[in-house]
Amino acid sequence: MTNEEDPVKVLVKDLIVGFGFVEGLWIYAKVNPMSEIVKAFSDLMPDKRYSILFELILFLATIIQIGAVYHYGGVIGLIALLSAFLGGIFIGNAMVGIILLLVGFGLGYLAFSMEEKITFLDVIDFFREVYGWFR
């Protein structure tokens, strides 16, 4: 028996909780971690023009994380991420925040363990067939 963690649990822990919920908590606490990181590094740089480089790197890291959620979890993964994010924002109302976080956990486990992911094209095809939209 090895000590390797289940990859689904790792993805849920890192992407849904670590990215979605924690980012929502930052917003609830009224702290912008990106600006704090940029401020900390720009104080160390002799030329203040490099601070835009840090902002760009942090923005690209956010886009890559959202892309990873979509790649590994599809649309359901993005819904799980949004639910956990909103759970962090609404943590002040403990019941709503915890329910949203639990929905994010559940959808995250479902999304990351599915063999075939639901993509945006699948969603568009569904609405096209059922409701006649996007024709």
Which secondary structure elements does this structure contain, and how are they paired or packed?
Layout: H1 7-28, H2 33-44, H3 51-89, H4 94-113, H5 120-131
Helix pairs in contact: 1-3, 1-4, 2-3, 3-4
Descriptive report:
The protein has 135 residues and is mostly helical. It has five helices and no strands. α1 packs across α3. The N and C termini lie far apart (53 Å).
Entry summary:
The protein has helices spanning 7-28, 33-44, 51-89, 94-113, 120-131.
Estimated radius of gyration: 18 Å
Helix share of residues?
A: over 70%
Oligomeric grouping of the chains: single chain
Output mean pLDDT: 85
Please give the count of helices. Answer: 5
Q: How many strand units?
A: 0
Q: Describe the biggest sheet? A: none
**Percentage of β-strand residues:** under 5%
The shape, in one word, is globular
Unreliably modeled segments: none
**Span of the ends, CA to CA:** 53 Å
Determine the structural class based on helices, strands and strand pairing.
Answer: mainly alpha
Sketch the topology as an H/E string, one letter per element. Answer: HHHHH
Number of domains: 1
Keywords:
single chain; 135 residues; mainly alpha
